[in-house]
Amino acid sequence: MITSLRIPQEPFLLRLFQLWQKAPEATLIRDRTDDGKDFTISHFLYDVLTVQLSLYKALDNDCKNRLRNPDADVFVGVLARGGYSFSVLLFAIYALGAVAVPLSPDLHPEEAKYYMEVCNTTLLATVPAATAKATVLSDISGIKTFVFDATQSTISDQPKFHLDTQSPLIEPEKGYLVLYTSGSTGPPKGVLHSRRAAWEGFRADIKGLGLSARDMFIHFSPVQWMGGCMLLHACILSGACIEMRSTTFTTDWLLARIQEGDITSMYLPPEQLSVLRDRINAGQTEGSHSTYEVTLRAIRDLRLLISGSMLVSPSLRDDWKIIRNGKPITVAYGTTETVALISVTNDEESPLDSCGRCLDRVCVRVDSSGEICVKTPALFTRYISPNPDVMDGVFDSEGYFRTGDLGKIENGNIYIFGRASQDAIRSNGLKFYAPEIEAELCTHPLISQAIVLGVPDPLIGERVAALVVTTEHAQLLQDRHGTDGSLDEISRTNLNLFGIRKWLAIDRELRAFKLPTMLRVVGPAYELPKTISNKPVKSKIRKLIFNNKVDSSNGEVEVWDFTTKESNGIGDRPFDWP
């Protein structure tokens, strides 16, 4: 049993050492994924350093030599769900001076093999729960595996740590982390972040979100996605207690956990925010009033409720501001290519349709094509891809990263219109953006989520196609009244193409050329094609639902007949057409 360990003076490890000096027995990680245990700062630091030594022994001599080479990287795959063991492996790889490549155990073996081969992974680190998948991957790739079993930790009661003043520091421009792009607009690419960029970025995130040792952050986001990985690092490096649960997530479980009242911070994507909002509001008239009051109090006591990764509609933000008694949710904007968040809405003055203001040391501008471009010390180093031209045009002449997002900057606030590759719609010679229509659809009381995209049309260029997901309440009404039952008890329109167009034009004053001309309505249980970060994959939705074989007679997809004359003067109003 090792009782005394030396701490290399690397930024992550120095920070953990400082936290250990202040409160060695403070709980750092509550693992509700693996075995339900709580782990102190002392335990975590001990396991990080001892696992680092074991990882080093598992490498061949060539890899050990490359670790000492400031211009070479050693890539280590991490096959595990978010939890204590995953966190230990990540920080141990950092301590080793290698590059961590997080991989989901849910990946298809051939897909995982592709990810590992693209970045030349030399070792696959895993945990007992994922050893079966790791064995399959090892068999098809020839990559050696390393298993970390947290239950076998040999930590002493009071381990001692001392700063290592002799060993040379690792070159800060060496890699630390590879995360793959979401694949929402093309084949996933590996995004390589250096040790320096990671440290700069996570420090900025901690400051931007105000995380500290006083926080209890509940974390159930995928750690293979930048948002989930960033929040994990930011919590650990700030000393916040992070409770991790990456399995069996349900709204019922989340409500029960919130009601315990000890959570100060959490992240929810827009879809889950919408579902949780509906459940909380339903609690006013259904179930126990005392339970509703406990839930409401706990929600209002949250210091930080974050959302992002895709459109968070103004109506959803407004609903949550009401639920939280005037306290707004925090909307964050970032990319896989920037460790630091780009912007955050962190005060009541942020416009409901903006992504807030830039974090410190983040520079943003909009180029002549309307694309958001970013420069920050936390930018990635390069893409890793079989495509030799993958870096062409990624940065402009002044080193700004071209995000692929279209938007504007107004009064210091960033506004995102959508992705240049998938959210710009061109119809009848006009160009407009899908998120604007999605935001309007999401104000409908029976719609919880809307996905709008352009579908090729030989006459007008592209049709406006809308896939809408109904709320749980709408589904209950539909089940109660049947397919011919009216939902007008809470809305003046039925959820069909004619009604939706009329509602958007009259109630929401949307211009005629932006009105949907294709519509599919699905219930809350419908499984949309999504990325690991919960973003709908529009290319797959277009192919699956709005393809060129759509038959409007089947009742699933409604297609608007352009010869139809609409009532109420829709199409003949001022400004209906530019």
UniProtKB/TrEMBL annotation:
CDD domains: AFD_class_I
Record's protein name: Amp dependent CoA ligase
Ranges for domain AMP-binding enzyme C-terminal: 436-535
Key words of the record: Ligase, Membrane, Transmembrane, Transmembrane helix
InterPro entries the record matches: AMP-bd_C (IPR025110), AMP-bd_C_sf (IPR045851), AMP-binding_CS (IPR020845), AMP-dep_synth/lig_dom (IPR000873), ANL_N_sf (IPR042099)
Transmembrane intervals: 74-96
Protein origin, superkingdom: Eukaryota
GO BP: fatty acid metabolic process
Entry-linked Gene3D superfamilies: 3.30.300.30, N-terminal domain of ligase-like
Lineage, broadest ranks: Eukaryota, Fungi, Dikarya, Ascomycota, Pezizomycotina
Family membership noted in the UniProt record: Belongs to the ATP-dependent AMP-binding enzyme family.
Molecular function in Gene Ontology: medium-chain fatty acid-CoA ligase activity
UniProt cross-references to Pfam families, sorted A to Z: AMP-binding (PF00501), AMP-binding_C (PF13193)
Limits of the AMP-dependent synthetase/ligase domain: 75-383
